[in-house]
Amino acid sequence: IPRGDVPNYVGTNGYAFVTITNRPVTITFAAADKVYDATTAATCTSTNFANLVTGEGFALNTPAMSFAFDTPDVGVGKTVTAAGYADSQVVPLGDTLASNYAFTFVPTATASVTKALQTVTSEPYDGTYDGEGHTITVTQEGGTVSYLVDGNWVDAAPLYTNRVEATNVVF
Length: 171
Description:
Shape: rod-shaped
Structural class: mainly beta
Mean pLDDT: 83
Number of strands: 15
Order of helices and strands: EEEEEEEEEEEEEEE
Largest sheet: 4 strands, mixed
Distance between the termini: 92 Å
Low-confidence stretches: none
Helix content: under 10%
């Protein structure tokens, strides 16, 4: 109320203090599904900044970070963990001021590891009984071959000397 403009009141000058706190922002990431490759390596596909003021934005410098699955094994909804996060990796876009925000990074996401395609080829022995031992040559792309011989798995191709032994070869 301006002084002197309202009868019955006397105006005074006063002060008010305003405290503006940092706006809390939660940073999450999404990880890519992958095909089994015997490693825990994971890839970040995107990041999300929740609770920003409309029109403001940030990017996260993810190349400075590492991402890993909990195990290399096949599975759905597996945990992916990010390492190496620091607030200094948050990059303001446009006129956005990072100092207006308080960042909380969520270091886990989920993704899936699917089974790898396995290509197995074999070169069977085709011949007439001759009393000699012959092997069935099996090759596998992306791994090693094991053979089931007398209830045990072995890495070396077994020798077969007659038709009955080689009927049901398991590899």
